[in-house]
Design goal:
The protein is of the alpha/beta class. It has 4 domains: about 180 residues; about 210 residues, Rossmann fold (3-Layer(aba) Sandwich), CATH 3.40.50; about 90 residues; about 325 residues, no CATH class. It is about 40% helix and about 15% strand. The protein is built from 27 helices and 26 strands. The strands form 6 sheets. Strands 16, 17, 18, 19, 20, 21 and 22 form a 7-stranded mixed beta sheet that branches. Strands 1, 2, 3, 4, 5 and 6 form a 6-stranded mixed beta sheet that branches. A 6-stranded mixed beta sheet has the order 8-7-9-13-14-15, with helices on both faces. Helix 5 packs parallel to helix 9. It is rod-shaped and about 135 Å long. The two termini are about 60 Å apart.
Length: about 850
């Protein structure tokens, strides 16, 4: 064939690469002659033979001796040592000299005149493909030369260092990739497919004796953002048979692998395909893995990396089996060299270089950046490839792939489901909320953020055990209304503008009702007292039971819903929607008792032009008169007088259907009770002149209520007494006066809850709890992100742990402060549980393999 009419070389599509010229070059040594055969295109072929100089073999042996002398320790292979004491030798200098001599003679031999036509043919193919690279945005297409060198001694030479195009001033890339002489297996179809699944990497960690695989693990984990990575290898106590079985089963995993990685000691073994040291004194020959490797190939295995010594047999065996490509070290390799190579090789893969370019980049790094530290190291790596397989390349990460790494693993999914389920448990929620508010109370005191109140709006007139004893009452249920009349008379005389009565007066006391009715009417006529009574929802007919008409009329008094929410009242009683208040004419809804107390107090402290006063002969409901007066004087609606949070949130209404309290304001027991109400025992009120009682000079609410005696309740004894919240109990322990201690009942009276809610309405103190479920989901994402970061940078685990511990503490402090200043309760316990489950799960994975 005329050289000027050279046919275009064959082209192949290399995955996402553009087509590139392909040549097949065989170099075969027969005694002192080397036969070269170049084939390409549509059957074109060139063949020459040149003498093979013994000098190259001698120089290679000298170089190998200097190489092994320099890299004496931490080799990833078994090197025989002599028993003689070695003299002090400058191995570095000798190795550099030996490398220079070897490469000089090797290049000189390859520039033999008989090889000119082969070199020119390859170089001409480069020049013919060059115009493609001049197009805007075009990428240079490399020329790939598949080299087969036999026998093994010839294959050990650094063929990758052959600079074929230099004499022709060719600047384009010529890549030498190796292939074995015998290739019987076909590459799987997956080699040429851009599969949609996420890349899967199996890393086998072999015998670590004298080595350190930590850098290998870190380098492999650096791909975790774009690949699923699993490790398998020797662990203390694992038997050889069990270890071999585990590795074989893992390789043949039904899900398949894309990349197989091995780190450890390995060696050449002609008859058994190569030897892998998988544990201390435990070897596995490649022929033993033929079946699992065949299955792995059929299930998608494309690329194998052996970061170990003497891998020529390993590569030949795997390509012969039909594997797409294999990267190996031809010579014994130092542990640190192997790690430097792997780190930069995987960095190239991660930047979407193909495997060949990534290998060349890593070798170039060793040559230019590490030649003084690791001489000759750049000559060791080689890439073997099946001629019908495209070069391996990581896919650009799709959004679906990025999202997959955020998918929880089995343990994480189980933990997340369990914590989410826990967030729906009412009992657990009450328990955690109680402790959380207790922590807030302690935080308030330690940081001196207790609200300063000179005069609480409520004066708690409590009927306690002492009152019962002093008045020789044998059974305080029902409570004698003559005593109520006396208390009202005293409060009216003390100029109490608002009196709330936390006794349900829905039944008659024939002998005593007249006394009470007279006291109430006198207080209204003579002192313009506003009365607020309690009503109770009848569970049978759904209507409210009010005070009997002989004692009070809705035309000059208010009736409020006495309900509290929960066995441990933790949530505010909110206003019912306006439609609900008047929808049922026969059974209208009631505003909360505490809200009516707050409304009455607000009307008295507002600078109104004219404060309405109750009239016993009024013909319209007193609540309607108050609403009209409020609107006329302030332009405000009673429904939003204090805060929009006093109304039911739509989200909260939906959450009720799930038996949840999402965004429902809580009763803030983190505020000490002395800031909420002033304690005044009912017996003290009756036994002492008003001027000695230190009552507030400003308008106040006098709340008459049962105070912790055992019979307090409507349907059953003790019904009005509730368990003491932890926060309230904490404040009780801080009481430092005998009088305050004497006023503390064993339980929490319902009136104390009403006092807290009244304070919250007046001060617009509505603490909104963020649902645990919401924050659990948020911190599941945070935890997954932290877990991904730990898996990608395991060497930074301790740093991550300290950072997360600090972040946990900071989150706790911020949640406490947000509660104090922003009235926002951010959950702590369950979100932190799920966060640390994710973090510890990733940490345990790292600990197991490193």
């Amino acid at each position: 064939m005329d050289k000027g009419e050279l046919a275009q070389p064959a082209e192949t599509t290399i995955g996402p690469n553009k087509p590139g010229p392909i040549f097949h070059l065989t170099a075969q040594q027969v005694e002192r002659v080397c036969l070269f055969d170049l084939s390409w295109g549509q059957g074109q072929r060139l063949g020459v033979q040149i003498p093979y100089p013994d000098l190259i073999s001698h120089l290679y042996q000298d170089w190998q001796q200097m190489y092994l002398g320099f890299y004496q320790q931490a080799l990833r292979g078994r090197v025989e040592r002599s028993g003689k004491v070695a003299p002090i030798i400058d191995w570095h200098a000798r190795l550099v000299q030996a490398e220079a001599k070897l490469l000089y003679q090797f290049h000189r031999w390859l520039r033999h005149e008989e090889l000119y036509e082969i070199r020119a043919t390859i170089a001409r193919a480069v020049s013919q493909s060059a115009p493609l690279t001049e197009q805007p945005g075009a990428i240079a297409t490399p020329v790939n030369v598949f080299l087969t060198a036999t026998p093994l001694d010839l294959a050990r030479l650094p063929w990758e260092a052959w600079e074929i195009g230099t004499e022709f001033t060719t600047t384009e890339k010529i890549r030498i990739v190796r292939k074995p002489l015998n290739i019987r297996g076909e590459p799987p179809a997956s080699c040429a497919q851009d599969r949609s699944r996420r890349i899967r990497v199996l890393a086998i960690l072999g015998d670590e004796t004298g080595l350190d695989f930590q850098a290998d693990k870190d380098a492999v984990r650096s791909l975790s953002s774009m690949a699923e990575i699993q490790f398998v290898g020797w662990q203390p106590g694992k038997q050889p048979k069990e270890l071999r079985t585990d590795i074989a089963l893992k390789i043949a995993d039904r899900q398949g692998w894309d990349v197989l990685f091995f780190a450890g000691h390995s060696n050449e073994a002609d008859l058994v395909g190569g030897e892998l040291a998988i544990g201390p004194n435990i070897s596995l020959y490649l022929n033993e893995l033929i079946q699992p490797l065949t299955l792995a190939k059929e299930r998608g295995l494309q690329f194998a990396i052996f970061n170990s010594c003497k891998g020529l047999n390993l590569a030949n065996t795997l390509i012969d089996l039909g594997l797409c490509q294999v990267a190996v070290m031809r010579e014994p390799v130092h542990n640190q060299v192997a790690q430097e190579f792997l780190r930069h090789f995987l960095r190239g893969l991660a930047s979407y270089q193909d495997a060949h370019d990534a290998l060349l980049s890593a070798c170039q790094f060793l040559k230019l950046e590490k030649q003084l530290t690791y001489p000759s190291a750049y000559l060791i790596p080689s890439l073997f490839r099946h001629p019908n397989a495209p070069v391996f390349r990581l896919r650009h990460t799709r959004w679906s792939d990025r999202l997959k790494q955020w998918k929880p693993r089995k343990l994480e999914a189980v933990a997340l489901a369990a914590v989410m389920l826990a967030s729906f448990q009412g009992g657990l929620q009450s328990f955690l909320l109680d402790r959380r508010v207790f922590a807030q109370a302690v935080y308030r005191q330690l940081t001196h953020q207790v609200p300063a109140v000179t005069s609480p709006p409520v004066v708690m007139v409590g009927v306690d055990e002492e009152f019962i004893k002093r008045n020789r009452i044998s059974n305080p249920k029902p409570f004698d209304r003559q005593f109520l009349a006396q208390i009202i008379d005293r409060l009216a005389a003390a100029n109490a503008p608002i009196i709330g009565i936390d006794y349900l007066l829905d039944r008659y006391q024939a002998d005593n009702d007249a006394y009470l009715a007279t006291a109430i009417q006198n207080a209204i006529e003579q002192h313009q007292v506003w009365f607020v009574f309690v009503s109770r929802l009848h569970e049978g007919n759904g209507c409210f039971v009010d005070t009997v008409s002989e004692l009070a009329s809705p035309n000059w008094s208010l009736n409020g819903d006495m309900s509290v929410l929960g066995d441990l009242p933790a949530y505010m009683v909110l206003l019912p929607p306006p439609l609900q208040q008047s929808l049922e004419k026969t059974c209208p809804r009631r505003l909360p008792f505490s809200y009516l107390l707050a409304l009455s107090y607000q009307m008295h402290r507002e600078p109104l032009k004219k404060l309405p006063q109750p009239q016993l002969n009024a013909s319209t409901q007193w609540l309607a008169q108050v609403k009209v007066s409020l609107t006329e004087n302030t332009g405000q609606d009673y429904q939003t007088l204090f805060s929009h949070r006093s109304n039911l949130n739509p989200v909260t209404g939906l959450a009720y259907r799930l038996n949840q309290w999402w965004l429902h304001p809580i009763v803030d027991y983190s505020i000490p009770p002395q800031q909420i109400y002033q304690w005044l025992p009912a017996w003290k009120l009756l036994e002492n002149p008003p001027e000695t009682l230190a009552l507030p000079s400003e308008p106040f609410i006098a709340l008459i209520a049962p105070w912790g005696y055992g019979e307090a309740g409507i349907n059953q004894d003790g019904e009005d007494n509730f368990p003491v919240p932890w926060a309230l109990d904490y404040w009780r322990t801080q009481a430092n006066s005998p009088e305050a201690n004497a006023a503390i009942p064993e339980k929490m009276p319902g009136a104390e809850v009403h006092a807290y809610m009244t304070d919250h309405f007046l001060n617009q103190r509505f603490v909104i709890p963020i649902p645990d479920l919401w924050m659990v989901l948020v911190f599941a994402l945070v935890g997954q992100g932290a877990a991904i970061a730990i898996r990608q940078a395991p060497r930074q685990q301790i740093r991550w742990m300290f950072l997360l511990i600090g972040a946990t503490g900071l989150y706790g402090l911020l949640s406490l402060q947000f509660y104090t200043t922003g009235a926002l309760l951010i959950p702590f316990s369950l979100p932190m549980v799920i966060l640390w489950i994710y973090v510890l799960s990733a940490s345990m994975e790292k600990k197991f393999y490193g």
